[in-house]
Amino acid sequence: MDTKKAEIVTWLFFLLFSYATGQTSICPAPESILPCICTNRHEDIQIWCTHSDLPQVIKGVQKVGDLIRKPIDELIVENNYLPSLPGKIFQNVKIMRLMLRHNGLERVSAAWLESQEMNLVEIFIVENDLRSLPAESLMKLQNLQALTIQSQNLKRIPAFSGLQKLRYINIQSESLNAVNENTFENLPNLEKLFIQGSINLRILRENAFYNLPKLRRLEITNCGINLIHMRALSLLPSLSEISFSNNKITDATMVGRAMRDLPVLSHLNLNHNLIDKLSEGGFVDQPMLEKLFLSHNNINVIHHGAFHRVPKLRVVDLNYNKISQIHPESFLQQSGSGVEELTLIGNQIMHISEFRSLLDALPRLKFLDLSDNLLQEIPRGALRGHPSLERLHLNKNNIKFIQTDAFVAMPALRELHLSNNSLNDMNEGPYWNLPALKGLDLSYNYFTRMQPKLLYHLPSLRRINLSHNQLSIIDPITFMELPLLEYVNVSGNSLVSIHPATFRNLANLYELDASVNRLIEFVPGLPRGLEKLYLHQNQITSLPTPPSPDLDLPSLRTLDISSNGIQKIPHGSLKTLHNLRRFYMKRNGLRQVEMTTFSDLNRLEILDLSYNQIMAIHPKSFSKLNQLKQVNLHGNTIENFDFMAIQDNAALSTLDFSKNKLKSISPNLVNRALDVETLNISSNNLNELPATLNMMSRTKSFRC
């Protein structure tokens, strides 16, 4: 019964769709082609035959052919009972794209596609029980461009020989166990070839992929490949991307040998295999190779000459292996290696000093990532003097000690990340002399006090992240020598107060985050150019009031003072915030909103006052907020609200009054004041709702 209902619903959907498109004249009457359904978009016709058996499907397809003489753009045969398909089943129609899906199909006749030789452009088959596909049924499809076969039981790939226009092949089968020599033969236009999920496919034999002049991309993934013949890939002059990820490959040298005759190979993906080392000559004579991915293997050592004569190699991904040692001459090039990105995340590297010689052999290196290793210290000179390195990531190690002048003579370094380590105040410093450094991340360490020496010799610094340390004190002159600083994050610390001189001279400061501390007062001495200020989850109980200059921030666009203890917004305290767009003040103790509370915020767009103790809102409190788009008053104790107060806020699109104590809403106000895109008035004390709520023209989401 459920299946029958589903079929009726689906039929009605397609019927309505046809009428909605205004193209009903091409399709015949629905009852005349059952169990098939016809839809069309402009001149393209789609036929969908479903939830039936073989005789009925044949009958429906024949009627389609009798009534529609135009070529069918797409024929979908889905969710039927069709254990087999006889010859010439589609002889009465002209099909361009054929999809067979979930029909219980086990076998097809060698002549099942006869009469479609000049019509078919694409075949898409998803049939888990299909065991084979006769090669002779495909060989005459002169216009076929794309073929996809997904089956759990397909053991053999049919020969695709001679399909002159075929450009795309995708085979997915758990049971596939071999790729024969002549399987992909005489396919002059094949560009992309994918074989996936064949865990029993272990060997790529000689000439498995041979003489495919336009093949650009080959992916054999999630299979069981452990042996590749050195001539498995032959006469493939256009092949530029290969992926053997998620296989059982243990020998990288075997892969390297098989790749040597590929003149334009630029991307090689060997992620998620079982490679345990990179031996000498592993990757040799690959003149165009640019990107090499070897992550998630078992590599523990990289030997001398592992990468030899690969002049265009730029990116090497060795993440999540077991590497503890890399030979300093593993990259051998006549004019020096051109590698620009080397990532070694999640390995077992203990001593960064051992990489000194390796870095010398990589003079063009721009990005080095040694995060999530076993580093404990950065000794003096270990990273000294690299001319091109721009980004260095040493996150998530156990670095406790950085020797004086550990980071020096690195003129190009602009990003240094030392997050999630064990750095503390015991280090003497200065640690660095980095004139070009713009970003420094010291978050998730154990600093308790910010001192000037920590930031000595960083004249170009723009961004510093000191979040989630144990800071209780920031020396007032800490940032004195950093005039270009734009972003400071000291959130998640133990700060109780911040000296007024701390940020005063930072004319370029754009964003400050001091959230999740123990601040008891608003941060004093902030530069007037500040645009974003985050102070949520502190212990601030009041806002500065005139004539105090502490909230004189005319450039401020975002202010978050949520989760504090502010019970009142004093008159005039927000009067200089002329550019404020977003104001977040949830989870305070705010009790009321007066007429002048927000009157100076004429550019405000988002106002969040949720989870306060607001009982009353003045009817004119929002009257001057012409650009207001979102108001959140969820979780307060408001009993009465004059919704006429927001009728002139034309830009308002979201209004949340849920979880309050509203008792009634006047029907006359609905279309004038509550016609917004998103309205939530749920969890109130409303006994009845105005019928006019269902007539709001703009509302897309309504909860009551």
TrEMBL record:
GO cellular component: a single term: extracellular space
Signal peptide: 1-22
Stored Pfam families: LRR_5 (PF13306), LRR_8 (PF13855)
InterPro entries xref list: Dev_Immune_Receptor, Leu-rich_rpt, Leu-rich_rpt_typical-subtyp, LRR_5, LRR_dom_sf
Gene3D superfamilies xref list: Ribonuclease Inhibitor
Keywords (A to Z) from UniProt: Leucine-rich repeat, Repeat, Signal
Name this polypeptide is given: Uncharacterized protein
Organism per entry: Spodoptera exigua
